[in-house]
Design a protein that fits this description.
By secondary structure, the protein is of the alpha+beta class. It has helices spanning 13-22, 60-77, 79-88, 106-123; strands at residues 24-28, 31-38, 46-51, 91-98. It has a single domain, classed as Ribosomal Protein S5, domain 2 (2-Layer Sandwich), CATH 3.30.230.
Length: 124
């Protein structure tokens, strides 16, 4: 059950645009999160996007490394969020952005992701 499949990714440009314009933002160092609850049912309880800005990391290798770290920490800790969303019969769109100039180790990103998911569960 600890997979992060394609149907859990938010791919539609229109939905991403709606999320970024109408969603709510908060910050958990080093992550900047935009979220929006949906009443309509989606393919998965939570659809997410992971982004690392080119502004801070010019090389794609560095951006891809950070995106892999963020996706992996989300994949390992998403089960509590999914359970809370299923209990409320809601779905969630989440935009996860790395917002720091330096690449941090996986342990720090994982701790930030845990705090982020706890905060999202609190908003449900």
């Amino acid at each position: 059950m600890n997979r992060f499949r394609k149907n859990e990714h938010l791919c539609s440009k229109k939905q991403i645009e709606t999320l970024l314009t109408q969603g709510e933002w908060f910050f958990v160092f080093p992550l900047k999160i935009c979220y929006r609850f949906q009443t309509e049912t989606a393919a998965a309880p939570c659809l997410s996007v992971v982004a690392v800005p080119k502004r801070y990391f010019k090389k794609a290798v560095a951006r891809n490394l950070l995106k892999r770290r963020m996706r992996e920490s989300f994949r390992l800790h998403k089960h509590d969020l999914y359970a809370a969303l299923a209990a409320r019969n809601q779905s969630l769109y989440v935009f996860l952005q790395y917002a720091h100039e330096e690449a941090l180790p996986y342990a720090q990103i994982e701790n930030a992701m845990k705090k982020t998911l706890e905060k999202l569960i609190g908003y449900i």
